[in-house]
Amino acid sequence: MSKLVSVAEAAKFLGVSKSTLRRWEREGRLLPDERTPGGQRRYDLARLRPNAFHAGSHARTTIAYARMSSHDQKADLERQVRMLEMFCSANGWSFEIISDLGSGMNYHQRGLRNLLEGIVAGDVDRLVLTHKDRLLRFGAELVFAICEIKDIEVVIVNKGEEPTFEEELAQDVLEIITVFSARLYGSRSHKNKKMLEKMKGAVEE
């Protein structure tokens, strides 16, 4: 007797994401064997053959993206990368790590641009982040919307508690001050550091 499984079980068996199965259905490559009265997909496990669907198809991979704001946080970036590596390995995903050291308001960082090019080209199957703001300080929702259109699964490892409006506003203000003061006075200048210390104290108060 054939065993019918859910889309989650079928995706795990084939080593792909649920969004990939939905895309394959739209493309006519792999149709569900049955749907429940509630419209849930069901697949015949005996009919699923991983190699049959991966052979000759456009390979898509899991991308884990890590970012920290400054070079002073290089050790934190390395810890973030290790966390992503362990998380992806534990889930049995073949993955690639992309990392940046720089402001979340800088849209021209090499790693971010490589990630966006992969998303647009259809090379990414899954995007993994430790936190939402590791991608961008502003505009992350737009990237997530593009991922949804491209059938890319977005996995955020540490969702944690949502910051308050005041906490988010303070973080955004500090980020903006950091970027513009660095452009005005240079990131390593004494004047820049003195201004940042004063502004940080004012925001925290």
Please describe what this structure looks like.
The chain has 205 residues and is an alpha/beta fold. The protein folds into three domains: 51 residues, Orthogonal Bundle (Multidrug-efflux Transporter Regulator, Chain: A, Domain 2), CATH 1.10.1660; 96 residues, Rossmann fold (3-Layer(aba) Sandwich), CATH 3.40.50.1390; 40 residues. The protein has eight helices and seven strands, in the order E-H-H-E-E-H-E-H-E-H-E-H-E-H-H. Strands 5-4-6-7 form a four-stranded parallel beta sheet, with helices on both faces. The chain has a three-stranded antiparallel beta sheet with strand order 1-3-2. Strand 2 and strand 3 form a beta hairpin. Helix 7 runs antiparallel to helix 8. 18% of the residues are buried. The mean pLDDT is 79.
- Report the sheet-strand fraction: 15-25%
Q: H/E series, N to C? A: EHHEEHEHEHEHEHH
- Average pLDDT metric: 79
Low-confidence stretches: none
> What is the number of helices?
8
- Structural class by sheet pairing and helices: alpha/beta
CA-based shape:
elongated
End-to-end C-alpha gap:
68 Å
Gyration radius (Cα, Å) is: 21 Å
User: Would you state the CATH class of the largest domain?
Assistant: Alpha Beta
Q: Report the major sheet.
A: 4 strands, parallel
CATH superfamily of the largest domain: Resolvase, N-terminal catalytic domain
DSSP, total strands: 7
The residue fraction in helices comes out at 40-55%
CATH architectural group of the largest domain: 3-Layer(aba) Sandwich
